[in-house]
Amino acid sequence: MKQNNDSLKNSRLPSTIHRFLQPFSGLIILFCLIVLNGCIVQFTPETEEEKELLVVEGLITDQPGPNTIKLSTSLPFGKKSEAKPLTGCSVSLKDDLGNLYPLSEKGAGTYVTNSSAFRGQAGRFYTLKIRTDNGAKVINYESSPVEMKPVPPIDSIYYEKTVIKEGFGNYFGIDGCDIFLDTHDPENKCKYYRWDFNETWILRLLFPVENIKCWVSDTSTSINFKSTAAFDEARIIRHPVASITNTTDRLKIKYSISVNQYSLNEDEYIYWEKLQNITDQVGGLYDVIPASVPGNVFCIDNPGERVLGYFSVSARSSKRIFIRDNFAGIVNLYPDCPVDTVYGDVEIWGLGESIWVLSDNPPSFGSPRRRILTDKKGCADCTVRGTNIKPEFWIGD
Amino acid sequence: MKSILIPLKETVVSAEKNILLKRFEVGMEKINIQSFKLLPTSLGEADIVKSVLLIPGVKSVGEGSAGFNVRGGTADQNLILLYGAPVYNSSHFFGFFSAVNPDMIKDATLYKGGIPARFGGRISSVLDIGTNEGKNEFTGSAGISPITTQVMMAGPLIKDTLNYIITGRTTYSNWIFGLFNNKTIRESSASFYDINGKITYEPNKSNKIDFASYLSHDAFRFGSDTVYKYDNNIMALKWRHIFNSRFFSTFSLNNSFYEYKISSQKNKPESFLLSHKINNTGFKADFNLFRGRNEMNFGLDLNRTVVLPGSYEPANDSSLVKRSFIDRERAIDGGLYADDKLILTDFLSVNAGIRLSSYFSTGPGRVMVYRPGFSRSGSSIIDTLDFKAGQVMKKYAGPELRISLNFRISDKNSFKINYNRTRQYIHLLTNSTSISPTDTWKLSDYNLKPQIGDQVAFGFYQMIFNGTIETSAEVYYKGIKNMADFKGGANLIMNDFIEQDIVNVRGKSYGLELLLKKSEGKLRFTLGYTYARIFIRSLSTLKEEVINDGKWFPANFDKPNDLTFTFNYLLSRRFSFSANYTYSTGRPITFPVATYIMYDDLLVHYSDRNKYRIPDYSRLDLSFRIGGSLRLSQIAHPNWTFSVYNLLGRKNVYSIYFRKEGDVINGYKLSVFGQAIPSVTFSFDF
């Protein structure tokens, strides 16, 4: 008897199950710390440097707008970690209908689709083709064909104030904030999810400077994914998306987060799971033996060559919330701004270059003009960190 | 004049002398309890596995790792027998204590090559633990060390006919956690106990029946929400019958059960209970027949094994976890064996044996058939086969040849050659370096072939200094087929289709073992040196399954140079001093070699598997023992043992790992015993 492959699909467990070895390792380390005292010392290995490998960071979605494929090369371990973009490659996408969509390079190592010609569609299969050319040698790479699975909308995003430190007597407490997400797929089609987010918050400087109010933005830096295959229903409740502490000024005035939800194929979920297994599950006696996790892009000309990264094909849905609440104990990132005060109309050397004006009080009632100065540009101009133009999505002030 | 009664030492007949030369097996080592109790201990506890580790050719991955590796075999390739039944979990407390209470152990025999035909089912070694039994006089002892406390009682129930022995051991380490300010630590706990009991019934000279039981339990709690529990129980019934002075028999029936349960309540909607079980029932009939210069041993064994690979259940009503379990695995395996020790001439004796081993994986069950020549995955399944209860799903069988030749060159030296084949149908799935707390056992099935090991060994043995010192040199070569390795980062827990993550690999190991041993007199010592290598190679041509481009690479426990030295000096009958020293090459490790950035996340690319090594291992332990007064009239005889483990305080590296901290990836060295650990053990006999 032959069965449909889909019904035999693994019921992969939620990724949380892997993390429960973590406390166990913790317990052992604890044991050796208590009983046996002092077990862990910092260490830097000396290894022979390997050659640079191609790194593919590609994401094709069903949303309008250009899709981006970033190509870079790996860096030797222990060196400063900044991506080294790979320029001058020819990159194209192929779908299962035989259409070919060339990408154009926009910025070093960043290749984008033509938005008017290409838009991803759930149910289609896509293949990525790359040709690198360093002048001396041309090498061809290709991904395996990847299906775009449909994705349900995010049901809700909500936050909870967390108490980092309780206030008592005259002391203020310290608050943080956890952001969660609920989603479900009524059709039970999407079993594997990935999320990332963009966040924006208002920054208001303490001195009456011209650029006093800005919108600062950041993006998520860790890979967040989950499987509902082990659950009866494709429903996710209280999934942590972000956690904000008092050590940033995100929560000071008004904060907004836009969460993107992506559908994953089982293969891609397994890729992230394995990647997380080898990067997260360390620090104990029972570590998973580290190994490189093969992605879905391969070198055609030299099958032995490793290609790092993954070509992701996902449908995307998004949701945004705003948070305006009282959070205690939020850090002041601008302490000690004033460094000098100048009276009278004297010329200030280096103004706008190494010295900036925080406040300028005109002469009155016999007092001379008074200017408070700073040597930190950030104290006098919020555009150092953000933009003073209100983003389109921003609601209210 | 007052006379004080001082008992004479228990007479030990040195029948073992010269046995080295007469014995057939290459690579057999017997440990008696007296010598292993003299060794310095890590936490005040005499430990059988630690003594086994001093035998050349036996290694462990590191301290705090359960199990041991014999001649390049994995930890699951050792058959540990207690009361003749297999022990599935050989340790307590993450490997810091071995599972069997030393009070119960009479002796232990390790076969690292030349495994007799009566043993089967594991490739690398057999560790047969011999247990004590009650005698006609009541004896007892009690002891206390920093972590454990233990009692033993033995004596007659009916004189000359019915005897008993019972031992128990438990920890009281929880007080340590209570000392801490941290809430998570204070709510943590760790405990274990084990109980051994044996009743021996000897109605007459030709019949002896004993019933023995072993119960072991471990429980750990981390914080208030994650609980780990381990149970390992054995029951065994054994009947020895003597037909006549030349014909003996032993019949035994035993059951061994191992289970772990892990539950987490950390996140209410996801709280779960994960469990794994293995249950084995075995029957064995063994006959010994002596005829002239022949000693024949034959018999059969039959085992039924049931494994629950894993079940995953909601831990409470509010949990959203779907109850799921992986189908039970069932198997019946049997062996029919015969061997003959034959003294051909004064110079040559032969031990030839054969074991016909067969294995049946039985239903009910469902089997996936994969497209040949493709990497096993959901998309390469071409068929599914369903089997009814009792139906044979897959059969494996084959003969195992065990041959030893002993050339007696002179009274003082001999040369031995040995070949043996072994098959193994049960596998411990692990993708960490040592046995981890969540490893599960798996039976061979439609897709997972049995492991087959072939070993050839040569040994040369010589007695020197009037036979007081024995020396030996052994070399061996071993090939292992169908070992299981895993695809990088594979998840082995609750994996319905584990065969999709298994990579079939081949192993080869070879080595030289040198031993110098003086086991009598006031001064005793053992000096062992081993040079041994173990390599693994993936045979697949599929890119998903190739490890290190299909080249041979060193296994996790490949430690080429290994030196052990143990020393005992018996100052008097009350005082003794002992020391042991161990050195070995650091084990291989995979290092990160490159970093890359994806979605603003810093990721690591690793070197070829096991390309680098951790620093070398070296450790010196000392202990000093004071026995009680020798006066027989005294009711209790106290014993004190003072020992220092890792006297030099060397921070031996157990593992090196890397962790992302902000934008940097930092490396750390972890040592389990980072300093000298003194301990005191007090015990008394009554």
How would you characterize this protein structure?
The complex is a heterodimer of chains A (397) and B (686). Chain A is mainly beta and 397 residues long. Chain A has helices spanning 21-36, 266-280, 377-380, and strands spanning 40-43, 54-60, 68-73, 75-76, 84-85, 90-95, 100-105, 110-112, 125-133, 138-143, 146-147, 154-165, 174-184, 192-204, 213-219, 224-227, 235-244, 255-263, 297-299, 307-313, 316-323, 338-343, 356-361, 370-374. Chain A folds into 3 domains: 9-39 and 52-148 and 265-313, Sandwich (Immunoglobulin-like); 154-263; 338-375, no CATH class. Chain A is built from 3 helices and 24 strands. In chain A, the strands form 4 sheets. In chain A, strands 2, 3, 5, 6, 7, 8, 9, 10, 11, 19 and 20 form an 11-stranded mixed β-sheet that branches. In chain A, strands 14, 15, 16, 18 and 21 form a 5-stranded antiparallel β-sheet that branches. Mean pLDDT of chain A is 82; it is low at 1-30 and 32-38. The longest helix of chain B is centred in the N-terminal third of the chain and has 5 residues, at 33-37. In chain B, the strands form 9 sheets. Chain B has a 22-stranded antiparallel β-barrel. A 5-stranded mixed β-sheet of chain B has the order 1-8-9-4-5. In chain B, strands 2-3 form a two-stranded antiparallel sheet. Chain B is mainly beta and 686 residues long. The radius of gyration of chain B is 26 Å and the shape is globular. Helices cover 3% and strands 58% of the residues of chain B. Chain B has 5 helices and 43 strands. Chain B starts with 18 loop residues before the first helix and ends with a strand. At the A-B interface, helix 1, strand 1, strand 4, strand 17 and helix 2 of A face strand 23, strand 36, strand 37, strand 41 and strand 42 of B.
